[in-house]
Each structure stands twice: as C-alpha cells, then as structure tokens.
C-alpha cells in the first residue's frame, strides 16, 4: 500500500533542503547600477502599474520605505525595508534584487519585486489590496 504524506510533512521536507538559488549580497556600486538599469522609484512609477497583486513590478526600494509584502503563505502584510544588505538572485523572470523587510513587529525576510511579492505602499497598491479583500 503506498504511503500517504501530508501537505505539512511535504512542506517541512522541502523547507529543510538547502536553497538551490542562494541570495548573494549586493555592493553599493552594484545597487546603484541596478537602479540605473531598472530606473529609480520615481521613473518606475511612470511605467505601467500592475493590474494584479501577483504581477511583478520593477520598482527600486530604499531603506525605511513602507511596503506591502506577500509571505510564503500567501498573506499580505505591511512592513518596512530594513537597513540589512540588499541581495540578488534568480527571480521568476530573471536575476533581480531581493529587499530585506521587517514586518509583524520583528520578522525579517527577503522579497523580490520581480516575483510580485513586494509592492510600495502607494494608493495604487492599497487599491489592489482592497480589491482583493486584504484591506
């Protein structure tokens, strides 16, 4: 008889494996070149805005900036970009930046705009969150 593994057990097994795509620190010079390449936060606001919360948004974030992040459980939380080192790694589209965010008082995790998991706290983002029932 085949064994039955619960979703929780499968999740625990997958979380215990080492990540295949480790994040790498970004130097201040690299961070500046990423900002130049992808546009700074003001110029990306002029580009088409995402129509859905899951859409990527090539946005450049800054330390202390208020953001909305989607956790691995799919929930959206408000947070702030922390002063920890920004990192780079593979996103679902291409290599991109991962920003450190503190949320829920003390939790810190890295989130990538190109994965659609971090959005600036703007009126547009709040409209998307409200439309999806998060606000």
Question: Which helices and strands, and how do they pair?
Answer:
Elements: H1 7-16, E1 24-25, H2 28-38, H3 41-45, E2 66-70, E3 76-81, E4 87-90, E5 95-103, E6 107-111, E7 118-120, H4 123-131
Antiparallel strand pairs: 1-4, 2-3, 2-7, 3-5, 4-5, 5-6
Q: Please identify the top-level CATH class.
A: Mainly Beta
**Count of β-strands:** 7
Strand fraction: 25-35%
Overall helicity: 25-40%
Uncertain residue segments? 9-18, 38-43
Going by helix content, strand content and strand pairing, the class is alpha+beta
Radius of gyration: 16 Å
State the major sheet: 7 strands, antiparallel
Give the domain tally: 1
Annotated CATH topology:
SH3 type barrels
Oligomer: single chain
Q: Mean pLDDT score, rounded?
A: 78
Number of helices: 4
Taken in chain order, the helices and strands follow as: HEHHEEEEEEH
| Distance between the amino and carboxyl termini | 47 Å
Shape: globular
CATH architecture label name: Roll
Protein name: PWWP domain-containing protein
Region (Disordered): 1-56, 72-93
Biased composition (Polar residues): 72-84
Organism: Lentinula boryana
Salient structural properties:
single chain; 135 residues; alpha+beta; SH3 type barrels; 7-stranded antiparallel beta sheet; 4 helices; 7 strands; 25% strand; PWWP domain-containing protein
Describe the structure.
With 135 residues, the chain is α+β, with helices and mostly antiparallel strands. The protein has a single domain, classed as Roll (SH3 type barrels), CATH 2.30.30. The protein is 26% helix and 25% strand. It has four helices and seven strands, in the order H-E-H-H-E-E-E-E-E-E-H. It has helices at residues 7-16, 28-38, 41-45, 123-131; strands spanning 24-25, 66-70, 76-81, 87-90, 95-103, 107-111, 118-120. Strands 1, 2, 3, 4, 5, 6 and 7 form a seven-stranded antiparallel sheet that branches. A hairpin with a 5-residue loop joins strand 2 and strand 3. The longest helix is centred in the first third of the chain and has 11 residues, at 28-38. The protein is globular. The N and C termini lie far apart (47 Å). Residues 1-56, 72-93 are annotated as: Disordered. This is PWWP domain-containing protein. Residues 72-84 have a biased composition (Polar residues). It comes from Lentinula boryana.
């Amino acid at each position: 008889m085949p064994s039955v593994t619960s979703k929780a057990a499968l999740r625990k097994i997958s979380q215990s494996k080492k990540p295949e795509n480790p994040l790498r620190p970004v130097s201040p010079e690299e961070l500046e070149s990423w900002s130049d390449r992808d546009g700074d936060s003001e110029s990306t606001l002029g580009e088409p805005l995402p129509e859905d919360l899951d859409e990527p948004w090539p946005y450049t974030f800054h330390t202390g900036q208020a953001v909305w992040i989607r956790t691995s459980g799919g929930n959206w939380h408000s947070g702030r970009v922390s002063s920890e080192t920004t990192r780079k790694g593979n996103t679902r589209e291409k290599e991109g930046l991962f920003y450190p965010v503190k949320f829920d008082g003390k939790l810190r995790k890295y989130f990538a705009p190109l994965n659609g998991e971090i959005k600036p706290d703007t009126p547009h983002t709040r409209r998307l969150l409200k439309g999806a029932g998060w606000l």
